[in-house]
Amino acid sequence: MKKIALVTGGNSGIGYATAKLLKEKGYEVFISGRDANRLQQAADELGVNSVLADMSKPDDIKKLAATFSESGLDVLVNNAGIAKLISLDKVTLEEFSEVFDINVRGPILLIKELLLSLEKRQGSVTTISSTAAGKGFPNSSTYAASKGGVEAFTRALAIELASKGIRINAVCPGATDTPILIKMGVKPEDFAEFKQSVENTIPLRRIGKPEEVAHVIVAQLEATYVTGVVWIVDGGLSAAMPEPGVK
Q1: What is the pLDDT along the chain (247 residues), one digit of tens a residue?
Q2: pTM of the entire predicted model
Q3: Helix crossing, 13-24 with 210-222: angle to 10°?
Q4: Which of 8, 36, 82, 233 could serve as a FRET partner for 127 with CA atoms 20 to 30 Å apart?
Q5: Is residue 57 part of a domain?
């Protein structure tokens, strides 16, 4: 029986690379996104199925989950997310809600709606976190809090759903060369300088590639004795001692 995978936010970046790798490994792949044109373009390029869905809308999440009610689902990659660098004094209630709706509520609701489908195939879930959850960065409190929430619900649901044979994990990428860096507020003309400054802090002296994170995601999905863990993919940054004089 061919395995079935769903990658949310699969039209770009880490989601796109993960969908591509899963397709190469023989999965029947579905990707979802909220931009119809970009989603269809990505699906055509990858040769996969597409389902239009906005992770901030509960009704869309229910419709997305219904796609797998009969077939069941082997793999869910909760990749869709939003990142905004906003200082605490400037963040609005609407922005706060948007970040948490997409990054926390959306993935939890999707897992909830897919419970029977995942149980049917003893499925595995990986949700994308961020090193921002464990490191302090200016203007990232809202985003960091949402990713901290991802790691918290990952551990809780891993225990809650273990008896159903459903595994729940997370992957925590560091700086990765994806469009989300621009969306976070880095101006295109400043990107090269920003990238260099980040790379100088990473032991491997470069930011990651989406394909490198995708390989870790797929390894986690297929590691059948792993649940409730967060795998860090950051080029060694989390293991490094701060340089002298750096607080």
Answers
A1: 899 999 999 999 999 999 999 999 999 999 999 999 999 999 999 999 999 999 999 999 999 999 999 999 999 999 999 988 888 999 999 999 999 999 999 999 999 999 999 999 999 999 999 988 777 777 788 999 999 999 999 999 999 999 999 999 999 998 887 766 555 556 666 667 767 777 777 778 888 899 999 999 999 999 999 999 999 998 888 887 665 554 4
A2: 0.90
A3: 50
A4: 36
A5: yes
Query: What is d(CA 142, CA 148) in angstroms, rounded to the nearest whole number?
Result: 10
Asked, for residue 241, whether it belongs to a domain, the answer is no
Report if residue 247 sits inside a domain: no
Q: Which residues pair with 77 in a beta bridge?
A: 7, 126
| Residue 239 included in any domain | no
Angle between helical axes of 13-24 and 36-46 (0-180°, round to 10): 30
Q: Which amino acid is at 151?
A: E
Dist. CA 137–CA 6, nearest whole Å: 31
Distance CA 50, CA 31 (A): 5
Q: Domain with 36 in it: what CATH number?
A: 3.40.50.720
Write out the catalytic residue numbers: 143
CA pair distance 2, 27, nearest whole angstrom:
6
What is the residue range of 134's domain? 4-232
- State how many domains the chain has: 1
Phi-psi region of 239 (alpha: psi -120 to 50; beta: other; left: phi over 0): alpha
Residue 15: closest CA among 81, 71, 114: 81
Structure tokens at 48: 């996969």
Separation of alpha carbons 179 and 217, rounded Å: 19
How many CB atoms are closer than 10 A to CB 147? 25
Beta bridge partners of 32: 8, 51
